[in-house]
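Before a computer can learn anything about folding, someone has to put a protein's shape into writing. The outcome of that step, for a single protein, is printed below:
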Amino acid sequence: MQKLQSSLKNMVVVLVGFSLVIGGLLAWVNHVTAKPIAEKAEKTLAQGIKTVMGNDNIKVAAPENVTETIDGKPFTFVVHRATDASGKDLGAAVESTTGGFGGDLRVLVGFAPDGTILGYTILQSSETPGLGAKAQQWFQKDGKGNVIGKNPGQGDLHVSKDDKSGNAVDAITASTITSRAFLKAINQAYAAYKKKG
C-alpha cells in the first residue's frame, strides 16, 4: 500500500472524513441519551412541583405558558396548576428564569390561591459555588432570608439593603446580585401566576 502524499487536498479529505465520522458518532450518542435525559427532567419537575406545593397528593393540570415582555425581551413562564384529590384549587407552581451573576437562574415557585409563597426549588443555576449556590437553602423557612409565607401581591420582594419597607428580604452574604436575581424570578413568577388567574 502506497503512503498518502502530504498535500493540502489529502489533508482536507482526511479532516473532512474524520469530522463526518465524529459528527455521526456524536449524533448517535445524542439520539441514544435524549429520551433518558427527557424522562429524568420530567420526573425531577414532577417531584419539584410536589415539593414547592408542600403536598405529595396533588393533581397537576397541563402546563400553561405565559409570555411577558420584561426589559424589552420576551420571557416565557410555565404555570402548573394544582388541585387536591377532590378538585380543590391548591394554587400553582410557576417556572421562572432570570439572569443571575453567572448566567441563568431558573426557579420553580409554589403559590397558594391567594399568592402566598408555599415553597421553591432551584431548577438551574450557574451561580458561583459556595456563594450564589446558597440560594437553595438561604430563602427557605429556616434560612436567613425566608420568603416562605410572603405574598408578592403585597409588594415586590426585594433585598433589604435596597429598601427597608414592605417585603424586604435579607440577601445572601457576599452574593447580593444572586439574591436580587432570585427575588426578581419570584416576583416575575407571581405576575405570570396572577395573569393566568
